[in-house]
Design goal:
single chain, mainly alpha, Ferritin, 5 helices, 78% helix, elongated, Ferritin-like_SF, Ferritin-like, ferric iron binding, oxidoreductase activity, acting on metal ions
Length: 149
């Protein structure tokens, strides 16, 4: 069994900063390049999601600084640390939604693991932050899955 440490919490936070940094760019890509009969719906939804991503990046980075860590802050770091993949640029509207559902599922799993790590070191503040993000993602994932039918 691996025991969480303050350093491992900083690693969790940087992975999430990287994930959200990549999602911020990916969601902009989808917002700009979505086409088809669902354009108006998805254009607005992707904007909503990238605005939320920006808030998560800032909140996670400021928490990282608060606990003495150094937040990932370059695209190079985001690409190295993220569990997610960049957009190819050729996705259909449906593939865009499917990609976001997949990304949110990956992040949800990582958030759950991060919450457990936080609980091991009695870091309730970070745990609560991660849980709030998880709760939001679970709702977004459900809505996007419902959108696809």
């Amino acid at each position: 069994m691996v025991v969480a440490t303050a350093q491992s919490i900083q690693t969790v936070l940087n992975k999430q900063i990287a994930n959200w940094g990549l999602l911020y760019v990916k969601l902009h890509n989808f917002h700009w390049y979505v086409k088809g009969n669902q354009f108006f719906t998805l254009h607005v939804k992707f904007e909503e999601l990238y605005n939320e991503a920006a808030l998560h990046i800032d909140e996670l980075a400021e928490r990282q600084l608060t606990i003495g860590g150094q937040p990932a802050a370059t695209m190079k770091q985001f690409l190295e640390l993220s569990s997610l993949k960049e957009a190819s640029g050729n996705e259909t509207a449906t593939k865009m939604v499917e990609a976001i559902i997949e990304d949110f599922s990956i992040v949800i799993g990582e958030l759950k693991a991060g919450i457990k790590d936080c609980e091991e070191v009695n870091d309730e503040t970070t745990s609560d932050m991660l849980l709030a993000i998880q709760t939001s993602l679970e709702k977004h994932r459900w809505m996007l899955q419902s959108f696809l039918g």
